TrEMBL record, chains A, B:
Cross-referenced Pfam families: DUF1611, DUF1611_N
Gene3D superfamilies: NAD(P)-binding Rossmann-like Domain, P-loop containing nucleotide triphosphate hydrolases
Protein name stated in the entry: EBNA-1 nuclear protein
Domain (D-glutamate N-acetyltransferase-like N-terminal): residue spans on this chain: 47-124
Domain of life: Bacteria
Alphabetized NCBIfam families for the sequence: DgcN
Residues covered by the D-glutamate N-acetyltransferase-like C-terminal domain: 130-327
Length: 340, 340
């Protein structure tokens, strides 16, 4: 487990896309995001108090999160110097960069000397089992998508938060680096060895018997030729009772692959249900989540209504319009089934 | 590349199932299998000349293949002692065991001192790309299955060999440890990191323009809840023009999972075609391969005839009855298409 609260690192970043992980934390975990660290040449802000390392530690921060992306996921000299200073001020370091903290001798030496922890959230734990497909107790929802990066993490987090607001037990199960930092736990599924994909999900979403829900963060797409194997193993390991389909209505083609068009919603629903039924014959779709961030509000609402009518499924932009209708559908049918 | 010819290790094995890799090499690569090494307490033989390490080296052997499996894939003291003696006699060492040769300091030291190579065929090469799904030149056949271990490697090797006998260029593309030792090259797909499954297959079966065929060894099954992610990525990376479905007609349940029945042939064909069409819309099934090793010959022939009639696909036990009818189907349609 990564100790909280966090100090969120922006460093020298000037491109908003580069601080995606820090922003995700500020948005979804304001309760543990105590401040932001940025150099004078960084024009970005998360609207958190700006702190240096000593001030953050004094304010209670326990971990500096290097929540930025740069070309190639490299751990540059600037990052290393800042991480060393943060450790000297009393902070642990967490990173989702491809280049591992634990592969940098200066950081390893300083952590050992100062008694600090280095968290590489892209390193899977060493004891992941082979999946067994055995039915386990508990209710699970998985987000799936027409493509990568269409809002699966945001949707899953919104669903978890909305379920909790209704007084129900709900746990977000992270499968990517930003999600892991938000939850403080999870599995970096893209870094797991191929034979262990479904087993990793069985491990991260174990049996539960409190009548609560596991909300599992989806990855990739069955229609993405680079990553569909990950999505397949995720569906099998999750044994989902419910699916929510995430879609970006203005995406021109599959992410990174201009030669692959996006699949339609109907075929994506069909393919995901087929794959999911292997480990849970009763799986059903309970909603569609659209990322309408580039659309005007009336246009976005009209699109949600039109897709909702076409597929007979509650449709919303979770971040913009909430997920209440999707939750109604999720919680409705089992109740009726229980009465009947 | 692993240097040949091989000396095949049987060691102290007494269970025929434990020498599967050595036997696969003796069966499919008699041309490079120069002898067998076994201790006096080993009752098994591959019907190759029995040689000690010095005699094997003098006869031309270049690599000792530890083609055995034991509980947990461990590299026991007996194996280490034998490997050290083999290196002293001039041989490199190759192993598909889970426990890596390169993780054993005594072997690493001896290899460095003597100028020998240690080949851990379960270690993927470090430069595997993310798959891109781009159409590449060449013709590809992939074996798929109702389950794991239903004869996909044997079928693929039989197809490659039969194509060559017809005078056509054909390359076996290995995706498992035994196949890699047989081919001298390939990718240990189950050990590749999840995000790189399809990319690993794109790499191992690159563009070819000699009108020959790549015959790609399948892994797992879309219906195996532990490994379907691997099978999915393999289908996408292979972009197969042709599929051959492999099936064990007496398998009682999915390998290792008594709670999962085997899927039917029809649904397995359907699922594989659906997944494969993402990267090759023209994929077709050209045959069914049955493992009838436990059946009497008349019974086996009757079963092949019955399945052939039911599905309209050439059906055979490749190892027992050959693959000529499957090759006829494979080579027939493209020819007609070319004429038309």
């Amino acid at each position: 487990m990564i100790e909280t609260p966090y100090l969120l690192y922006l460093g020298h970043s000037s491109d908003p896309a580069d601080i995606k992980t820090s922003r995700g934390l500020a948005v979804f975990r304001p309760d543990i995001s105590i401040g932001e660290y940025r150099h004078d040449n960084c024009p970005l802000t998360l609207n958190l108090p700006r702190m240096d390392f000593a001030a953050a530690h004094a304010a209670g921060a326990r971990t500096l999160v290097l929540g930025i992306a740069n070309a190639g996921g490299k751990l540059g000299e600037d990052l290393i110097v800042d991480a060393l200073a943060a450790m000297a001020a009393g902070l642990d370091i967490a990173s989702g960069l491809h280049h591992r903290l634990n592969a940098e001798p200066r950081l390893v030496e300083a952590a050992a000397r100062l008694g600090r922890k280095l968290h590489d959230v892209r390193d899977p734990r060493p004891d992941i089992p082979i999946g067994n497909g055995k039915k386990r107790a508990g209710k699970r929802l998985l987000t799936v998508g027409t493509d990568c990066s269409v809002g699966k993490m945001y949707t899953t987090l919104c669903l978890a938060s909305a379920l909790e607001k209704r007084g129900l037990a709900a746990d977000f199960r992270a499968t990517g680096q930003t999600g892991i930092l938000i939850a403080g736990d999870g599995v970096p599924l893209d870094a797991v060895v191929a034979d262990f994909i479904s087993g990793a999900i069985e491990q991260v979403s174990p049996a539960r018997s409190d009548d609560g829900w596991d909300l599992i963060e989806g990855q990739g797409s069955l229609y993405h030729p680079s990553f569909a194997g990950v999505s397949t193993g995720l569906l099998h390991g999750a044994q989902p009772d419910a699916l929510v389909l995430c879609h970006d209505p203005v995406r021109p083609h599959m992410r990174g692959l201009p030669h692959y068009p996006l699949p339609g919603i109907a075929e994506t629903l069909d393919a995901n249900l087929r794959v999911a039924r292997l480990t849970n014959a009763d799986v059903r779709v309970v909603g569609i989540a659209l990322n309408t961030s580039t659309m005007a509000e009336d246009e976005a609402r009209a699109l949600c209504a039109s897709i909702e009518a076409e597929f007979g499924l509650p449709t919303s932009d979770p971040y913009r319009f909430g997920v209440e209708t999707i939750l109604d559908r999720l919680l409705d049918t089992p109740l009726l089934a229980a009465i009947a």
